[in-house]
Amino acid sequence: MQPAGASILKRAPFIRLLLPLMAGIILQWHQQLPVLMIITVLVSAGIFSVALFLLPLFKKYQSGWLAGLFISLVFASFGALLVRTQDIRNNPDWLGNHYEPGQLMVLSLQEDPVQKKKSYKAVASVRWIKQGDTLKKITGDVIIYFQKDTVITNYKYGQQLIIQKELQPIKNSGNPGAFDYKRFCLFEDITHQVYLKSNEFVVLPDKDTRWFKEFLINTRQKVINILRRNIKGEKETGLAEALLIGYKDDLDKNLVQAYTRTGVVHVIAISGLHLGMIYLILVSLLKPLKKNKKSKWLVPIIIISFLWLFSLLAGAQPSVLRSALMFTCIVLGENLSRKTSIYNTLALSAFILLCINPFYLWDVGFQLSYAAVLSIVIFMQPVYKSIYIKNKLLDGFWKLNSVTISAQILTLPVSVYHFHQFPNLFLLSNFVTVPLSGLILYGEILLCALSFMPIAANAIGNILTVLIKLMNGYIEKIDAIPFSLWDGLQISLTQAALMVVIIAAASYWLFYKNKKAFTISCLGLMLFFLLHAMSYYHAKNQEKLIIYNVPGYPAIDFIKGQKAFFTGHEALLRDEFIHNFHLKPSRTYNRINEAMYDISQHHSNKFFEYGNKKILLVNSGIKNLDTTFRLPVDLMIISGKPYLDMDIILKAFSIRQIVMDGSVPAYAIERWKPFLDHQKIPYHSVAEKGAFEVNPN
Fold this sequence. Notes:
By secondary structure, this protein is an alpha/beta fold. It has five domains: 4-86; 95-209, CATH 2.40.50; 215-487, no CATH class; 493-537; 543-694, no CATH class. The protein contains 25 helices and 23 strands. The strands form five sheets. Strands 1, 2, 3, 4, 5, 6, 7, 8 and 9 form a nine-stranded mixed beta sheet that branches. Strands 15-14-13-12-23 form a five-stranded mixed beta sheet, with no helix packed on it. A hairpin with a 2-residue loop joins strand 16 (606-610) and strand 17 (613-618). Helix 7 runs antiparallel to helix 8 and helix 12 runs antiparallel to helix 13 (318-335).
């Protein structure tokens, strides 16, 4: 009997090409191999592959493994070359290679500015920089934050600006466990940002647009206007926009967290679920054309065109592009009367996507989409057949839940690794939201189709408002149940990989009664828990002080074992979003299960000892210092906007290290830097260098 794995590889040859491509992408990102080496391996492996192919049949059979090795090297080096060429930092015309502060730049807006809490935000491409008397054409994107009082209502996609304001490189917060925002932006070719006041830029009369992109943006805006006009309520409108076209700027943050915690965030994120529903509508509507031989060929063209148009309108996100590619393969396969393997379809779509953009490999949505579809393909039928139900209605409900359960199996390692949580009540939440969101999606498409009829559009909008409000309310009630979420889960990348191995081996054992697979799953489980125990042992014995990088706020954690004592601004306790964004990732990373808070520490200067460290916390001017004896200080933490005479302070204290937290203004730091450099005192600004962490012993 042929092993199942070998059978899958035989039916899905693109898996053999996809795996080395992924390996090459990962290797190049982490090792940054020189381009000459990559091309040498690519050409050499290609020549050897062709040479082996030209051998006599018997020799070719004997050297089959060698041919496989060289072909793998070809695609691995091709993956490395993709990363090398698509990393904008390797482009000779990248702005980072030419830009110097003070230069004039011409920028072109790549989107309409979006209103944020304190500014308007837009992504812009840098087209030209002035070098001497000439203009240098360059490439690279920046994020522009326009001051809130700036009148930008007429600024749209393609608007060109001239600025001279200094660009700031995009940086990470440096807080432990924090999201790698710098890498996320780099994958989008964005490396710098700038904050502009109304008098810091000049608007050019000419626009820099591409007709197709302008068409998509205008169409997208028309859809948004239809939804805003007919659907009542901010929460309801924001969710409707996200559900239909993936527009997330109006989404309520707390509502997004509720959908995430209950395991139905895929409803908000445009995915295969949405394209699948649209695909079914198109198939039903185009049935009459399929009956006619002359018009039969139009069906795949219409379906594929509409799916891709919808995908582009939805922002061309990796999840929707993956779904569009997969359905394209399915449509072509059906119309060519060929049965294709779903594994090969998935591998082919992933291969094409990674060729378009190798950085999709790090996209969480990309990972979850493929994990979910693959999990459904493998486990849906075994899960569904595990319980026999005679009643057709109940059987239909069980089938829906079988899809939900099976999708969770392979997405579990991915979601736990990235989000550190597991929705315990995902069955209850999916049971209602999946069919209800489908009904809402169909209703929104109907609303857009009948938007020219105000009475009909208003009636449909009212119904959709009620349905969305019902769905939101249901999710919020599920989220409010105390045990609805298993939070604070922390696993390493090695443990996530082990989880995949355990699931694969255990499944192989259950499906094929293979004893070796059972042994592998048990060994993997033992190693997983060994690593887990080691991480807990380390957490139990840890002791550290962390000064967080929270813009505008002081925030310090004193960690001992799995307990944290926090001192800082009360806003970090009141605002759940700020707390979850800045403090929670670090607490999860360090396995903190108990936190105590004292905000009074930052209301006055304080001198204290923590472990073997003598710490001076300063957040106001220091007066009447005794300079007769220099008190030793291991760490001086400056907070807020204190007026400090550094010369007097250094006469009173012997300071080994100075740290300025996130609440210290930039101008104060710049004022102190020359003096500290002259005195050769090490200093650390969390705003510039990220969070500061030190062991007190």
